[in-house]
UniProtKB/TrEMBL annotation:
Name of the protein: Class I cytochrome c
Keywords: Heme, Iron, Metal-binding
Keyword Protease: no
One MF annotation (Gene Ontology) recorded for this entry: metal ion binding
Residue intervals of the Cytochrome c domain: 61-164, 187-269
Source organism (scientific name): Viridibacillus arenosi FSL R5-213
């Protein structure tokens, strides 16, 4: 090979790599140009001052885009009806992301299109917003994935983009991921059952089957989330319950109450996630997942709560 050709091939090769990196970035940030990306990352150090001010649905523009946004809203708020063929339980996204993801304290979905794609340890890779939505579809909704390019998936993303207006790319949002309890006290299932019967059954029913996805969703049984969902972890369920329940009386439960309730709820039967062995492919699987094995241990009286709650690995 002549040296000139060698250099040309080499340059082509470098060009291909740079082009590939550029394309990957361009794909990941969904149409933002380089300047916007730089501005966005420079801003993100001040994000704790970000105000929570998602636009009103009354201001959705007319036309095709507006229709998609409103369809997205309906899908999020009325998932079990509007996407019946995909949903495997009796929940909506609103069952956990209150107010269709607009409630600031209940795992708000405002800003999602600004922070995805991102690395997710449970998947062991970079996850797009579409894949993250489908993650909740197959776990929390115990259902099926929306096909790529389906009207449903596009509409939900349009809705998320709309409610994420003015949130800079990569923003560190103060309202995000606040529903996890760091030091979960060792629970008592019996005490959890007692509090449940006293404070939760008016909306969630004595048998946990609920009164409706947006009035008191199913907490266990076949109409609830499967044991691969985020809320099937004691730390997440205890954190969620402490911050958000009982609806109307939020903030009245102690950490101990919330832990007892989480242990009681997660000791009941629920749909089984078939792919536990594929989660956390790079290790670090949390110990506090209440899967079928751990539910059986509660029944047998052999569960070691302390070990589940104190060690991560
Ligand atoms: C049973 C409760 C539940 C239901 C129902 C549910 N989710 Fe989630 N969702 C969660 C939890 C828990 C998390 C993780 C939050 C955390 O880690 O703090 C989450 C996370 C997410 C995230 C990523 C949030 C982030 O900050 O990165 C998106 C996006 C999402 N859900 C979308 C949806 C959509 C869309 C639906 C309906 C199709 C849905 N979820 C239904 C419980 C639920
Ligand atoms: C006044 C009615 C009401 C009461 C009482 C209530 N909840 Fe809820 N719960 C709701 C509603 C409504 C939602 C849906 C999300 C939202 O709107 O906040 C919900 C959602 C939930 C969820 C997430 C959805 C799911 O399917 O897992 C959990 C967990 C939960 N509640 C637990 C409890 C516990 C534990 C108590 C008792 C301490 C309780 N709730 C008391 C109305 C209620």
């Amino acid at each position: 090979m002549k040296s000139g050709t060698g250099i040309a091939v080499g340059l082509l090769f470098i060009g291909a790599i740079l082009g590939g990196v550029w394309l990957t970035k361009a794909f990941f940030v969904e149409g933002l140009d380089a300047t916007e990306m730089v501005t966005a990352s420079a801003k993100s150090s001040n994000d704790k001052n970000l105000s929570y001010n998602p636009p009103s649905l009354d201001d959705v523009p007319e036309g095709e885009m507006g229709e998609s946004i409103l369809f997205g809203y309906e899908l999020v708020n009325d998932t079990n009806n509007k996407a019946e063929q995909y949903v495997g339980n009796n929940l909506t996204c609103t069952s956990c992301h209150a107010g269709a993801g607009l409630d600031e304290n209940s795992s708000s979905l405002v800003g999602m299109t600004a922070v995805y794609p991102q690395y997710i340890e449970r998947s062991g890779g970079i996850v797009t917003i579409e894949e993250r939505i489908n993650g909740c579809m197959v776990r929390s909704m115990n259902g099926k994935k929306f096909e790529a390019n389906s009207d449903e998936l596009e509409a939900i993303v349009s809705y998320f983009k709309y409610i994420s207006k003015d949130i800079p790319v990569g923003a560190d949002m103060p309202w995000r991921m606040n529903n996890s309890m760091e030091n979960v006290p060792v629970p008592s299932v019996a005490n959890g059952e007692e509090i449940y019967q006293k404070s939760c059954i008016t909306c969630h029913a004595a048998d946990g089957a609920g009164t409706g996805p947006n009035t008191g969703p199913a907490l266990w049984g076949e109409d609830s989330f499967n044991d691969g969902a985020g809320l099937a972890r004691l730390s997440k369920l205890a954190g969620y319950v402490k911050n958000n329940m009982p609806a109307g009386g939020e903030g009245t439960l102690t950490d101990q109450d919330a832990s007892d309730l989480a242990a009681f709820i997660l000791s009941q039967d629920r749909p089984v996630w078939a792919n536990h062995d594929k989660d956390w492919p790079k290790g670090n699987r949390p110990k506090d997942i209440m899967d079928k094995e751990n539910r059986q241990k509660v029944k047998d009286g052999t569960i070691d709560w302390k070990a589940m709650l104190t060690t991560k690995q």
